């Protein structure tokens, strides 16, 4: 077969072309590997077998990268079922015109040599498919334009950009043999121009990623990096400065390979960092930012000596299902480390190949966990049963006879208002969807002070006196609240005595003692036929004082309606539905873990709130900061100032509109 050659188009010349070339910019940004970096490089020179270009017949992780085959199967079992996403090819336009000739050798003694054509057609199909299956956003369908056999060589002709993908397959295994793919006539540049050092570095890192990526399993094998022949040839780990920059640069290349974070998460669900001599996570911490929804992670056979070495990831990887930590000194130094690790990852199913949660556990115990402070039982301080009797009576009356309720508890000095919070978080397990106009019956008289700015409008939405309150609550949709006796877990009720409540008789100018009662819960809206509709959540604050026909009157009543948010936020972890008390006054309160002696939970919470206000950090990060300095507030502020520039965006509270 005689190949037809097309002369390449001449490159543009002249001053205009020179100016265009001079103004080209690398939109991805240069990757500088040689700048000095403080701290440990982390990825050390491991002792396992090399994991350079594959010589074993498949682009699969080596046995040395994972502790054993059984654990490898466990970590990969969940890696299927995600839609295929492939890596886009980065190039600046591509050379036009001529094809590139490649020589493929080592194939003639394959298992397919018995085919009628000696396995040529099967080899070509495999080359095209494998070169097209890359990490990234866009599928690049590599097509071999022409081919011919010359002795034991297969000569193929492809477009210049396709040649880049095929050349990365050099050393891959096919049908029981390793094939060699090389260029006839010199190196290939996908852009048709000479690459800069930064571009060559990116191309090298991209090649490492693609060679270690299993497309079908969505698995990225980053084990034994210091034994990778290509990285060794680049002297990546010879200097501390280049070693410390290597992993962040590789993660940056991975990020630039995708158009969207969702596509990146779909393409890579499993990662192995086994056998890298890691003593902590400093060198590889960027993995949690690049792949935040990772499902399977292998950290086996490193040098993690204590749980503290893993702390920087304990609030990351919220979708993690399988984790391997075997072969680390941690196992001997902290024999009970598994309990802490399991608590860090609420979706974790397997730890070191052992099941720690079932799928039913995940569904049944879907709740807020690993909070900076334990969820405490309600603080309910009553006297003479006044507060409890009020709560039981009030909500029964609100559901059944609001007119009578208004006459019973509200007098001419009572005030009532309500607001709608349409931005409140929804229950992650809820199947309800937002619908147009779903708040229409509430918004007309809503007193949401973030939305209502004018003073007259605010005053008009505050109702004072028995008749005004009765008319206001009558306008709200009909409701049905959970039964306080049989469904106590759906309520959060707190009460305490407060001084200075206005005395309606005027006998005590300084006021009298009363109650502040806060209620959080849920209700169902009922239609005109009494049938249930939307489920919503509410928050309500009452100030009670003496007076009224029942001896108790409502001084102030503020109600907030919001979308159904579930009960996870206020359900104590120790709650047992099988022994649910017919009482709204639970008294058990968990102890404060990790707090210094003499520091109570309320005091710690106040310190965290103050640090959040001063620094803008989230609750979790503020608590971590105080933890690290032994709950010394001034020390926490100083520590924040030193690391502020390196904190991720998620460490700060996002302003709400």
From TrEMBL:
Keywords: Cytoplasm, Leucine-rich repeat, mRNA transport, Nucleus, Repeat, Transport. CDD domains: UBA_TAP-C. It comes from the Eukaryota. The keyword DNA repair does not apply. GO terms for biological process: poly(A)+ mRNA export from nucleus. GO terms for molecular function: RNA binding. Its main location: nucleus. One of its GO terms (cellular component) is nucleus. SMART domains: TAP_C. Pfam families: LRR_NXF1-5, NXF_NTF2, TAP_C. Residues 386-561 form the NTF2 domain. Residues 1-20 have a biased composition (Low complexity). Residues 602-655 form the TAP-C domain. Residues 1-64 are annotated as: Disordered. It is found in: Nucleus. PROSITE patterns: LRR, NTF2_DOMAIN, TAP_C. Involved in the export of mRNA from the nucleus to the cytoplasm. Belongs to the NXF family. This is mRNA export factor MEX67.
């Amino acid at each position: 077969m005689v190949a037809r050659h097309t002369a390449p188009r001449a490159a543009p010349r002249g001053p205009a072309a020179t100016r265009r070339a001079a103004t080209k910019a690398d939109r991805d940004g240069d990757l500088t590997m040689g700048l000095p970096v403080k701290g440990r490089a982390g990825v050390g020179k491991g002792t396992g077998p090399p994991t350079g270009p594959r010589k074993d017949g498949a682009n699969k992780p080596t046995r040395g990268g994972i502790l054993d085959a059984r654990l490898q199967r466990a970590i990969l079992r969940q890696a299927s079922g995600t839609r295929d996403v492939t890596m886009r090819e980065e190039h600046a336009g591509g050379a036009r015109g001529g094809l590139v000739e490649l020589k493929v050798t080592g194939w003639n003694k394959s298992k397919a040599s018995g085919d009628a054509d000696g396995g040529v057609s099967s080899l070509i199909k495999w080359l095209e498919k494998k070169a097209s299956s890359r990490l990234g956003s866009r599928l690049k369908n590599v097509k071999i334009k022409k081919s011919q056999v010359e002795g034991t060589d297969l000569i193929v002709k492809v477009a210049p950009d396709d040649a880049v993908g095929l050349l990365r397959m050099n050393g891959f295994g096919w049908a029981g043999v390793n094939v060699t793919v090389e260029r006839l006539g010199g190196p290939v540049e996908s852009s048709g121009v000479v690459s800069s050092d930064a571009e060559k570095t990116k191309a090298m890192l991209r090649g490492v990623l693609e060679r270690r990526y299993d497309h079908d399993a969505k698995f990225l094998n980053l084990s034994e990096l210091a034994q990778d022949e290509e990285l060794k040839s680049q002297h990546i780990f010879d200097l501390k400065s280049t070693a410390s920059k290597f992993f962040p640069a590789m993660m940056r290349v991975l990020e630039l390979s995708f158009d969207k974070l969702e596509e990146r998460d779909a393409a890579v669900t499993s990662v192995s960092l086994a056998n890298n001599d890691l003593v902590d996570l400093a060198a590889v911490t960027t993995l949690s930012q690049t792949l935040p929804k990772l499902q399977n992670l292998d950290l086996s056979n490193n040098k993690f000596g204590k749980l503290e070495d893993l702390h920087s990831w304990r609030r990351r990887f919220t979708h993690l299902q399988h984790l391997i930590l075997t072969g680390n000194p941690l196992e001997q130094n902290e024999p009970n480390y598994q309990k802490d690790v399991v608590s860090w990852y609420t979706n974790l199913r397997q730890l070191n190949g052992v099941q720690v949660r079932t799928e039913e556990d995940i569904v049944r115990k879907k709740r807020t966990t690993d909070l900076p402070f334990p969820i405490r039982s309600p603080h309910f301080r009553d006297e003479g049963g006044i507060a409890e009797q009020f709560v039981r009576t009030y909500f029964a009356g609100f559901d059944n006879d609001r007119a009578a309720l208004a006459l019973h508890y509200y007098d001419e000095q009572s005030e009532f208002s309500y607001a709608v919070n349409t931005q409140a978080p929804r229950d992650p397990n809820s199947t309800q969807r937002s619908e147009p106009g779903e708040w229409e019956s509430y918004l007309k008289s809503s007193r949401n002070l973030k939305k209502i700015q004018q003073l007259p409008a605010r005053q008009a939405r505050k109702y004072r006196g028995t008749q005004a309150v009765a008319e206001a609550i009558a306008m709200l949709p009909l409701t049905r609240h959970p039964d306080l006796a049989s469904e106590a877990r759906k309520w959060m009720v707190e009460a305490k005595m407060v001084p200075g409540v206005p005395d309606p008789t005027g006998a005590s100018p300084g006021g009298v003692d009363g109650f502040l009662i806060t209620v959080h819960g849920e209700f169902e809206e009922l239609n005109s036929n009494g049938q249930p509709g939307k489920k919503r959540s509410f928050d309500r604050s009452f100030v009670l004082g003496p007076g009224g026909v029942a001896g108790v009157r409502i001084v102030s009543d503020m109600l907030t309606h919001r979308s159904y948010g579930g009960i996870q936020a206020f359900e104590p972890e120790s709650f047992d539905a099988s022994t649910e008390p017919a009482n709204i006054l639970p008294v058990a309160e968990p102890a404060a873990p990790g707090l210094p002696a003499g520091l109570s939970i309320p005091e710690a919470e106040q310190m965290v709130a103050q640090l959040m206000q001063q620094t803008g950090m989230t609750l979790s990060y503020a608590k971590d900061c105080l933890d690290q300095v032994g709950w010394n507030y001034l020390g926490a502020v100083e520590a924040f100032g030193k690391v502020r520039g390196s904190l991720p965006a998620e460490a700060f509270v996002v302003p709400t509109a």
